[in-house]
Write a structure and sequence with these properties.
alpha+beta; outer membrane lipoprotein receptor (LolB), chain A; 5 helices
Length: about 240
């Protein structure tokens, strides 16, 4: 009987501790752990270089460039081929040698995805203005550590963010993604955080599906507030394509 009471007491305390903190507190602690909203918004550009590794054994070198207010570009190289995906704040476009090698504008769905990638602050900052609905739904174990689970909904799409209960940094995001041409439930796991201009940024991001790592992105260099012209994100003009 004593053991039963002890177990029930632990269960009640554990359940209470999950909800002893509310959504606003989790967001405030997560923002502070990253470096604070002022430091985060003081970064105008980020240029990341690294290696992308696929489950099939393929590796690509890449440069990922982001600029406020909503610009993003990814340049990848593989076996002498250069692949580019970019977003100038309005237009999403790509250049793929395996699809003809000409700059092609993307559709509305890709524009939406690229706009999310171009968000330098993340969805926890100014989430109401961005149209997100957030709800703290409990906690879960993430690779041996407890994390607070936040349900995020926008435009009928739902994802789950996990904030580490010790470091208060983003540990994982669960969401639907297109993998190999098919929609799949994936986990985006973030680790190896390092300070970049006063802001904590993950140096490793893994995409897992059914417990298997499908892709990882390891950053070897991350630089903030470097000069990046807007033209770098713009869809190539006819003059540029002729040269």
């Amino acid at each position: 009987m004593r053991n039963l009471i002890a177990i029930l007491t632990i269960a009640v305390v554990s359940t209470a501790s999950v909800f002893a903190i509310d959504l606003d507190e989790v967001i405030a602690k997560a923002t502070a752990a990253r470096g604070g909203e002022k430091a985060i918004k003081a970064i105008s550009t980020v240029v990341k270089e690294g290696t992308m590794s696929m489950a099939q054994g393929m590796e690509l070198n890449f440069t990922e460039t982001t600029k406020r207010p909503s610009k993003f570009r990814m340049d990848m190289s593989f076996q002498g081929m250069a692949i580019t995906q970019a977003f100038d704040g309005t237009t999403a476009w790509a250049v793929n040698p395996m699809a003809g090698g000409k700059p092609e504008k993307a559709g509305s769905e890709e524009v939406k995805k690229m706009a999310e990638q171009a968000d330098m602050d993340g969805e926890l900052i100014d989430w109401k203005k961005k149209g997100y609905k957030l709800e703290l739904v409990g906690s879960e174990d993430i690779d041996g550590s407890t994390a607070y689970k936040i349900k995020s909904t926008k435009d009928d799409e739902t994802s789950f963010l996990y904030i580490d209960a010790v470091t208060w940094l983003l540990a994982k995001i669960d969401k639907k993604m297109s993998m190999m041409g098919q929609e799949a439930e994936v986990e985006m796991v973030f680790s190896n955080y390092q300070d970049v201009n006063g802001v904590q940024m993950p140096m490793l991001m893994e995409i897992r599906s059914d417990g298997q790592t499908m892709m990882s992105m390891s950053y070897s260099s991350v630089k903030a507030n470097v000069e990046v012209p807007d033209a770098r994100f713009a869809f190539p003009s006819e003059d540029v394509k002729k040269n």
